[in-house]
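Action item from last week, closing it out:
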Amino acid sequence: MKKLFILFLVFVVALGFAEVKIQFWHAMGGWRIDLIQGMVNDFMKANPGIKVEVQYVGSYEEILAKTVASLQAGTPPHVVQLNEISTKKMIDSGVIVPVEDMIKKDPSFDKGKLLPQVVKYYSIGGKLYSMPWNSSTPLLFYNKTMFKQAGLDPEKPPRTFSEVISYSKKLLKKDDKGNIVRTGITWPLYAWFFEQWMAEQNKLLVDNNNGRTGNPTKVVFNNEAGLKIMEFWNTLTKEGLMINTKKGDWTAARQLFISQTVGMIITSTSDVALLVSEAAKQGFEIGAAYIPIPDGVQRAGVIIGGGSLWLIKQKNQAEIDAAWKLIKYLADVDPQIAWHKGTGYFPVRLDAKEKLEKEGYYKENPLHYIAIKQLLDTIPSYATMGAVVGAFPEIRSAIDNAVEKMLNGQLTPKQALEEAEREANKAIKQYF
């Protein structure tokens, strides 16, 4: 009888310490897959009762589609990483647990430690819906060695659209047959850059204060500010001063810069670590600066890019609690520092930034600091907070398609702007 009682106790204790299994889906390919797995492994060592299955799912769009499919099948993941433009759609979906709800029940997490700029982006009405994690902004990287060869001052990167054009003309190089072998600049054909330049001019993308004070009903970028961007992009292309990629092809843009086919690139701050490493391998000195802005415009600042972590509703509360522990861990000081150093995504925590400053990290790695300083210098406004709109992916697609037609000579900058406006407004109406 005594043996049976002891066995019963062992069984009860075992149940109490049953392993909780959760899934974490992310969109970070390449070298970042191993980096994330290492961070999660550290989490599991510190939390032996939690087993995390980490899965690289593909692009943000693929994660969103697969998350929807898994919800319909009744087998949703616990934590998903989605890009910033998925915010409104996820809030409207009703399938998430707002992280603000978890924070209120968890005194161990201090929201005040997060960078206010990233908190504002992922908050609606003061409520934080997802956990900022891989935050980025666009940055100008340039080949200092090539600048010197072209007679440009390597310590004075271009600050305006006209300077970009002027510098690119000096960087332009042709072979004996007149073929371009080197030119000025590139960036991925992606509407994110259009959005950033609208914000730099302190102009909105959609009405109702970028969707922050009410559901947006239309886009509001068909104006002088939008036209300046289109004309700049078009001029660089038509004059052979820029090489365009296929839509959303970040890898191609990076390779053009790494191979020294172009002297400048505007890309995500998340590329800092990779570009610095590749520049060293290729034997050229790299510099970084704030993104150039339209002439005659006072710099307003940039919008948060990248992504955040969403907590998906589950039937089992233990799984929700375990997923929350993982989210908290990934947003903690040391994991954020490791993520920042390994990628270029800046730390989303003030105390992580302060720790790096005290250690002298930014003195040794100034390009990493430029990325975060550009954000800290941003002037808070509805424009720089970024738009919140359910049809955001479709709006970006409308802009991308119009820009592509313009670059192919099918539309003028003005016509491209009008077409983007028309198609984007259709998407907004269809969303509701």
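Closing note: The first helix runs from residue 2 to 16.
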